[in-house]
Design a protein that fits this description.
This protein has 367 residues and is mainly beta. It contains three helices and 23 strands.
């Protein structure tokens, strides 16, 4: 969404028809979250059926209760370890990657799910994964073609600007193998890393062109939701947008919680944290990814003029941070957010582009 995430000094990616998919990562759309233990129990009871329970031990020998079920789900994390027992410290059996299909056979009361994962040509693996890493929808349209790169573009390891880390780069006029699209916004490609090994990564769909390829907005069966207007920002999508669907401040955006700015009082005790790179993210699948559920890393719902994403190793969650005289709360994080960088949550992609990227001194509010 901005310069920090493009990471290509002096290079701009011109995406001529940026499309914000209908699958937004805040309110106003169907959640990608699957049912947890309590939700599964209620769903079974709603069908006038009696839930079936089992028990298993976690890695510490503690009893975990499981309600049985059977449903096909998909991995929504970059990768998730499939473990022998329902717990982060248990032995891992396999790594399951983004978009992988699994069968869930039970939901644990400690935030884990019992699953069966079957990789082509291999025996099924039975174990446990975090429930939060699962989605009801794959969001990946799988196919195979060859596309030409129309602009130098960085490759991310996850289809979201806030979460994805740069893992490589493709050059204009280069040919790449494409294996799928996500919400028409992102394309999954195969590339070679520095050691010459084939890897999977993600680039904006509009950075590619293939024979017979339908770009977002060019077909009646592609619903362009959340198109944004041209802004004055300097980010990777700033030049691409042409229309407007929301006010500049984003207050009329359905489903986005808009907060009132809070100024730091004149007698506040402020601890200098240094100079930070300030960027912005919004509730769209470009920034947050198609599987985001609208809940921050701390479990709070993101609110404009309030929520910021930080590196929690540098700024602990719950900290009140003063940026240009305004008070924000550290409630979120992201894979692309590093030391001395803060991402401010805003209502629309256009607003984020308009505010752009800047450097400023940041302070910790001490109460």
């Amino acid at each position: 969404m901005n310069e920090r995430r493009s990471g290509l000094p002096g290079k701009k990616l011109f995406f001529a028809a940026v499309f914000l998919a209908a699958f937004l990562c805040r309110g106003g759309r169907v959640s990608a979250e699957v049912l947890d233990f309590d939700g599964t129990v209620k769903a079974v009871q709603a069908q006038n059926a009696q839930p079936e329970y089992k028990e298993v031990k976690d890695e510490n020998g503690k009893t975990v209760k499981i309600v049985t079920c059977k449903e096909t789900l998909y991995v929504s994390a970059k990768k998730t370890p499939l473990r022998k027992r329902p717990g982060s410290g248990a032995k891992w059996l396999a790594r399951v990657y983004l978009g992988s299909r699994i069968v869930r056979t039970g939901v644990c009361d400690n935030g884990w799910s019992r699953v069966v994962y079957e990789e082509k040509g291999k025996d099924p693996v039975r174990g446990f994964v975090k429930t939060s890493d699962l989605s009801e929808e794959t969001q990946i349209t799988k196919f195979s073609d060859t596309a030409q790169v129309v602009q130098d573009t960085e490759i991310l390891d996850y289809p979201a600007m806030k979460e994805g880390n740069v893992v490589g780069e493709i050059q204009a006029e280069q040919q790449v193998n494409r294996t799928g699209m996500i919400d028409y916004v992102w394309s999954r490609i195969v590339y070679k890393d520095k050691k010459g090994r084939e890897q999977v990564g993600y680039v904006p769909t509009t950075a590619l062109m293939a024979e017979g390829m339908v770009l977002p907005g060019e077909s009646s069966n592609v619903v362009a939701a959340g198109v944004i207007h041209k802004s004055e920002g300097t980010g990777v999508f700033a030049e691409a947008v042409e229309e407007v669907t929301a006010d500049g401040d984003g207050t009329n955006v359905e489903g986005v919680r808009v907060g009132v700015p809070v100024a730091a009082s004149s007698d506040a005790v402020l601890k200098p944290l240094g100079t930070f790179r300030i960027t912005h993210y919004c509730p769209c699948s470009i920034c947050c990814g198609p599987w985001a559920n609208g809940i921050t890393s701390t479990g709070a719902v993101a609110v404009t003029n309030h929520t910021i994403a930080v590196d929690p190793d540098q700024i602990p969650y719950g900290s009140k941070v003063v940026i240009n005289g305004q008070v924000y709360v550290a409630e979120d994080c992201g894979g692309a957010i590093r030391e001395n960088c803060i991402d401010i949550y805003v209502a629309t992609h256009a607003e984020g582009e308009q505010k752009g990227v800047f450097y400023t001194d940041v302070y910790l509010l001490q109460e």
